Amino acid sequence: MQTVKANGITLAYRTWGPEEAPPVVLLHCRGADGSDWTPVAERLARGPRRVYAPDLRGHGRSEWPGTYACEAMRDDIRDFLTVLGIERADVIGHSLGGTVACLLAQRAPGLVRRLVLEDVPAPFPLDPPRPEAERPDGDLPFDWAMVLATDRQRNAPDPLWWEHMGRITMPTLVIGGGPSSPIPQDQVAAVAAAIPGARLVTVDAGHLVHETCPDEFLAAVSPFLTCRTPS
């Protein structure tokens, strides 16, 4: 574990692979942390690649500042890259991490060489809205305020999130979890359709594609990352 100051908070992160190798940033889902990616990260690092897996704000060993808008998480990762001197990276985001990755690709496309979105729903308002969740007893590995804040944004996302999908101009791979995922797969398909030139792949693994079916996940991701980027 290492830490860095980015966007005014402390972010914890893990790394794999040689420092001089091409960088890949892995963004975890809500309630997890960077360690969630370990089996996949170890295999990506053999590429060779330099793999970074930060804990998003309010998760794991990163700071829990009490404010959890997805836009703030986006800015955390943008500054994370800047502070570490990473000019351009491949970015893989799962669920909440995928939303953050989308927002980063919209706002700072020059930082993202290739984008992979794992089972990420389209940012459509929920109807009916998701009711406020009750906090479970005991200690949690994340800030409960983060759950409430991200639920509010999931219920009523900023319309610009959807309107700006066309700003994602780098090569993009969208991976859906298939019919066993709780994420409506028509929304995953809508994300792929809204991003110019994006490719959609379905792995019938449920929401945790990279965890449940790592071989199939990497079979889609590894060739995509190693393709030559169009000039």
Describe the structure.
- This protein has 231 residues and is α/β, with parallel strands linked by helices.
- The chain has one domain: Rossmann fold (3-Layer(aba) Sandwich), CATH 3.40.50.1820.
- The chain has helices spanning 38-45, 70-83, 96-107, 144-155, 159-163, 185-194, 209-212, 214-226; strands spanning 2-6, 9-16, 23-27, 50-54, 89-94, 112-118, 172-176, 199-202.
Give a brief description.
The protein has 231 residues and is α/β, with parallel strands linked by helices. It is built from 8 helices and 8 strands, in the order E-E-E-H-E-H-E-H-E-H-H-E-H-E-H-H.
What is the CATH class designation?
Alpha Beta
- Unreliable runs: none
CATH superfamily: Alpha/Beta hydrolase fold, catalytic domain
Indicate the overall shape. globular
The span between the termini is 36 Å
The major beta sheet can be summarized as:
8 strands, mixed
- Largest sheet, order of strands side by side? 1-2-4-3-5-6-7-8
Strand content: 15-25%
Structural class by helix and strand composition:
alpha/beta
Rounded radius of gyration (Å): 16 Å
What's the number of domains? 1
Any idea what the CATH architecture is? 3-Layer(aba) Sandwich
Q: Say what the CATH topology is.
A: Rossmann fold
Counted beta strands: 8
